[in-house]
């Protein structure tokens, strides 16, 4: 839950900026977009599996890159 208190001498613009930052920190916009339409549980499951596969492939790529990368050598 986002709570933003307005100070006495604070302008409306700065208050709205502060409120917007608080909403972004709480990820409320993303949550509202996710819940805007109903998704069947099977579709949610497929999307989660797809995200897992993407992260696995990224980690695999990074691991192979670091394995074949030449070590740093100091030259004197």
UniProtKB/TrEMBL annotation:
Query: What is this protein's record name?
Result: Small ribosomal subunit protein bS21
Basic residues bias: start-end ranges? 55-76
Q: Which residues form the signal peptide?
A: none
Q: What is one term from the GO cellular component aspect held by the record?
A: ribosome
Species whose genome carries this gene: Candidatus Roizmanbacteria bacterium CG2_30_33_16
Which key words are in the record?
Ribonucleoprotein, Ribosomal protein
Q: Which InterPro entries match?
A: Ribosomal_bS21 (IPR001911), Ribosomal_bS21_sf (IPR038380)
Q: Which family does it belong to?
A: Belongs to the bacterial ribosomal protein bS21 family.
Q: Where is this region: Disordered?
A: 48-76
Could you tell me the superkingdom of the organism this chain comes from?
Bacteria
């Amino acid at each position: 839950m986002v709570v933003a208190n307005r100070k006495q001498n604070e302008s409306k613009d700065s208050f709205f900026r502060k409120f917007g930052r608080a909403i972004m920190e709480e990820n409320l916009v993303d949550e509202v977009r996710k819940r805007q339409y109903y998704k069947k549980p099977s579709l949610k499951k497929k999307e989660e599996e797809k995200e897992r596969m993407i992260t696995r492939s990224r980690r695999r790529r990074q691991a192979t890159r670091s394995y074949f990368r030449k070590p740093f050598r100091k030259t004197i």
